[in-house]
From TrEMBL:
SMART domains: HTH_ARAC. It comes from Brevibacillus centrosporus. It comes from the Bacteria. InterPro entries: AraC_XylS_family_regulators (IPR050204), DUF6597 (IPR046532), Homeodomain-like_sf (IPR009057), HTH_AraC (IPR018060). The keyword DNA-binding applies. Keywords: DNA-binding, Transcription, Transcription regulation. Residues 164-265 form the HTH araC/xylS-type domain. The keyword Coiled coil does not apply. GO terms for molecular function: DNA-binding transcription factor activity; sequence-specific DNA binding. This is AraC-type DNA-binding protein.
Length: 274
């Protein structure tokens, strides 16, 4: 049985204000697939009789394979936010590969998928419809997970040692608040700048700078959504920024609005209408 993953869902904007519309469950991979997979995720929604909802996400540095009725796709890493229109009712199941974990399946630079998607046939040579029917018709989460893991287990490539290396680097960038610039990444990894950029282009799909920025903004958006509205200067310092103007500029460049505008938008979502 795949165990549920209890970490907070960073990157899904305003999730706290919309949790009544959706359920999100995440599950750890099996020992057989964990070298490549970070976790599996299942989203269910029921908006029958309601307006379609536009869900905005700051992408993680991970490739996702999403099984969805008539729309199964492999999604590369986006450079900014992406918007998914959710309507009616339904469910999807996704495989979230570790940073670097999809390269052995693709056999080409993961940057070729950046800001785009590919079909199941393009990468795996597998017929989409039969797998959609098999996986999405399963009666419960564990059955869906078992069928999804069966699909992946039959197609596992050889283990590439760079997958572990890249994953460790990305986790270090996520957890070390002193890593803000590419120069900081060079210091932490001990790898020269050009080599590090080439490695990330091939295995992650976006630059080290992009990875660092999105993790800081994931944390910022989550803090705002939870109502932990510290002074912007204090928040920027906690996230490792040297000055709050740099933080505000980064936030706006990715999210499309300032932190203050985002905070106000959250309040509008969570304040009952009269």
């Amino acid at each position: 049985m795949n165990e549920a993953v209890n970490e907070l869902p960073k990157g899904v904007l305003h999730l706290a204000g919309n949790d009544s519309k959706f359920s999100l469950m995440r599950y750890a991979p099996s020992a057989e697939t964990e070298y490549f997979v970070q976790h599996y995720w299942i989203v269910r929604w029921d908006l029958r009789g309601k307006e379609p909802y536009h869900q905005t996400v700051i992408a993680h540095p991970n490739v996702n394979l999403v099984f969805e009725e008539s729309n199964t796709r492999i999604y590369g890493v986006g450079k900014s936010t992406s918007v998914r229109v959710v309507q009616d009712h339904g469910w999807v199941i996704g495989i979230k590969f570790k940073p670097g974990g999809f390269y052995p399946f693709l056999g080409a630079p993961v940057s070729s998928l950046t800001d785009r998607s590919a079909s199941l046939e393009d990468v795996f040579g597998s017929e989409r419809r039969s797998w959609e029917r098999s996986i999405l018709s399963a009666p419960d989460d564990q059955s869906m997970l078992s069928r999804t893991e069966a699909f992946l287990s039959e197609r596992l490539p050889e283990k590439d040692p760079n997958v572990s290396l890249v994953h460790e680097m990305v986790m270090a960038f996520r957890d070390d608040r002193s890593v803000i610039r590419v120069e900081d990444a060079v210091r932490v990894t001990g790898m020269n700048k050009r080599a590090l950029q080439r490695l990330f282009d091939r295995y992650v799909g976006v630059s080290p700078k992009s990875v660092i920025k999105r993790y800081r903004l994931h944390e910022a958006a989550l803090r705002i959504d939870k109502g932990e509205l510290a002074d912007w200067l204090d928040l920027s310092m906690e996230l490792g920024y040297y000055d709050h103007s740099h933080f505000i500029r980064d936030f706006k460049s990715v999210v499309g609005m300032s932190p203050e505008e985002y905070r106000q938008q959250r309040e509008n979502l969570t304040t009952p209408s009269t």
